Amino acid sequence: MDGQGLPGGPFEDVAPLTGGTQNMLIRFRRGGRGYVLRRGPAHLRARTNEVLRREARVLAALDGTGVPAPRMIAACPDETVMGGAVFYLMTPVEGFNASVTLPDPHAADRSVRYAMGLNAARALSALGAVDHQAAGLGDFGRPGGFLERQVGRWRSELESYSALDGYPGPRIPGLDEVARWLDAHRPATWRPGIMHGDYHLANLMYSYDGPEVAAIVDWEMCTIGDPLLDLGWLLATWPVDGDESASLAGPLGAAGGLPAADELVAAYAERADAVAGRDLSSITWYAVLACFKLGIVLEGTHARACAGKASAETGDLLHSITLGLFRRAQELIAT
Asked: Transferase as a keyword (predicted)?
């Protein structure tokens, strides 16, 4: 921090932040300024440092845009400074995660919750409006063939789970039907842009004072791809009464009063610069792909649970959500 010219002095109000399951977040103050340090877990995984470097690069590129996100203060890509871990410092976010808690006025006022839903789509459209080339991210991902390789990529991921002893294989009704439909109805054209990669209510922080999105967080899966898949991801995980996937939204999903899926799409479309060159008439395809992809990701934990490498209770829960996502995909296809 001293080498970066940041304010000096003792470290004060040091406290871990909870909510994530992998990387470490530590909030503190120094020299009259607040910071959040983000680094990988105590036992680093193979790609942790590369993921942190990518996150830091994207957050730095978003500075000066209208995207609600933590702002980069300083990054340290040098692994030798902190015992092998890449880390960065970002601005603290004053807000709450509505999948964990729902304070007033949000809990008491249905109109506030309704606006929270629309603002989730509007925050995403702000990201979709960013020109990734102008932001210095022209070499950040592999947008060429992005849509074409999605189904095969995730079928291969699902097949890899069979290597885990005790996993009986995917018992997912509709798996082949959904995969065939996705290949047959893939959009012919699309415009690349910055993707968050895991856009749902649990990765949003809301303002304590009202329905505004204070920040989009957890940029671990960010890349350059098709931003409409982020919108599809929001639709795939959107709380629906009686659906297993509603559990992902926690108290906000339980409280209800949220806008319908078509209202989310309309809120996203309010920004002409976000939808220019993007075919919102194909949004059902993106929502089905999001169900397909997320369902396979969650099935991985179920497979590890079958092999004794994860909690059986968690594995069963996530498998039920996977089944719910594939049911939602089949319902979307049928409409």
From this structure: yes
